[in-house]
């Protein structure tokens, strides 16, 4: 312990460091038991096909219902799960759960599942995906995997081979948070990607900043030229939706259309979306 080393020699711990370490240890222990105790749950957020004026699918977003702390967001526990080697089993659970739940939906909509870069390189991803599809009976073209640019940082044979193996299963690949990382255009050329998800930060500024609009427009036309669809993330207002549409995005996602919601609320949501498109804001979109 630092104290026992005597005065003037106790700089190994900053004030509060021990407390932070303790908090972290508790979180790690809680995370391990959360997995065993079934405290994880998937929420689903609708993705809207803007041109066709309909719900095209849902993105599965992981939630942790902590017995004392309540709902903990993924930004807080996924990095920890990655650190302690829990992300592979957790990611496998997410895949299986998402495929099983989507197979029960009343319509053949797509389900999008987020992957951690560690899971991407685990060596067992193709097998896990194949297994989840086989067990659930979900048609492969209904599954979309969302990867981030950090999965593609190593532009090598292995990365390409993982993507090709996944594509051979018949599933689709989306590039998440596009525009925030390195956003190398060569990724779009070199890797078999079906969809670009434009990061919410561009959508946030799209009404107030013409540069944000031009960037969204350019990514969209780049995507169209490469036969990729483009989704705008984080649409919160009617004004943003109209701008996104003007920029030519094929799909949209955000609180404006619907928040992430528990699986059991999904059927209700779909019924509402069908009966009254006003609930979704879809009435704003002129039918082509
Ligand atoms: P993401 O994949 O980019 O997901 C979008 C995030 O934006 C979600 O946060 C969603 O709730 C939020 N969002 C959606 N619409 C809006 C909006 O209109 N405004 C704002 N401000 N936010 C909106 P969430 O659920 O907290 O997830 C955060 C991140 O955690 C995800 O970002 C994803 O990277 C990661 N994540 C979530 N579930 C999983 C999972 O099952 N596995 C892995 N590896 N990562 C996951
Ligand atoms: Mg995502
Ligand atoms: Mg995203
Ligand atoms: Mg994001």
UniProtKB/TrEMBL annotation:
Query: Which species is this UniProt entry from?
Result: Microvirga lotononidis
Query: What fragment of the full-length protein is this?
Result: 366 to 653 of 664
From the UniProt annotation, give the residues forming the signal peptide: none
Question: Domain named EAL: which ranges?
Answer: 24-274
Protein name, please? Diguanylate cyclase (GGDEF) domain-containing protein
Determine the domain of life of the protein's source: Bacteria
Recall the taxonomic lineage recorded for the source organism. Answer: Bacteria, Pseudomonadati, Pseudomonadota, Alphaproteobacteria, Hyphomicrobiales
**Coiled coil: which residue ranges?**
none
């Amino acid at each position: 312990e630092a104290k026992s080393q005597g005065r003037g020699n106790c700089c190994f711990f900053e004030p509060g460091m021990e407390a932070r370490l303790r908090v972290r240890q508790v979180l790690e222990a809680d995370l391990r038991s959360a997995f065993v105790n079934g405290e994880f749950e998937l929420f689903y957020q609708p993705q809207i096909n803007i041109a066709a004026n309909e719900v095209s699918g849902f993105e599965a977003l992981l939630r942790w219902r902590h017995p004392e702390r309540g709902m903990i967001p993924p930004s807080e526990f996924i990095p920890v799960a990655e650190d302690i080697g829990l992300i592979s089993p957790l990611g496998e659970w997410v895949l299986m759960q998402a495929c099983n739940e989507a197979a029960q939906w009343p319509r053949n909509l797509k389900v999008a599942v987020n992957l951690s870069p560690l899971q991407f390189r685990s060596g067992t991803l193709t097998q896990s995906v194949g297994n989840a599809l086989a067990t659930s009976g979900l048609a492969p073209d209904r599954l979309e995997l969302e990867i981030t640019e950090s999965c593609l940082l190593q532009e090598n044979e292995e990365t390409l081979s993982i993507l090709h193996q996944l594509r051979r299963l018949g599933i689709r690949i989306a590039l998440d948070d596009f525009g925030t990382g390195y956003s190398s255009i060569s990724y779009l050329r070199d890797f078999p990607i079906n969809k670009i998800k434009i990061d919410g930060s561009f959508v946030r500024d799209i009404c107030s900043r013409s540069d944000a609009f031009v960037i969204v427009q350019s990514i969209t036309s780049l995507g169209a030229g490469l036969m990729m669809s483009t989704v705008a993330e984080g649409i919160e207002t009617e004004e943003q939706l109209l701008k996104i549409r003007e920029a030519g995005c094929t799909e949209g996602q955000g609180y404006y259309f619907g928040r992430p919601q528990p699986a059991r609320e999904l059927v209700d949501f779909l019924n509402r979306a069908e009966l009254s498109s006003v609930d979704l804001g879809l009435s704003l979109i002129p039918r082509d």
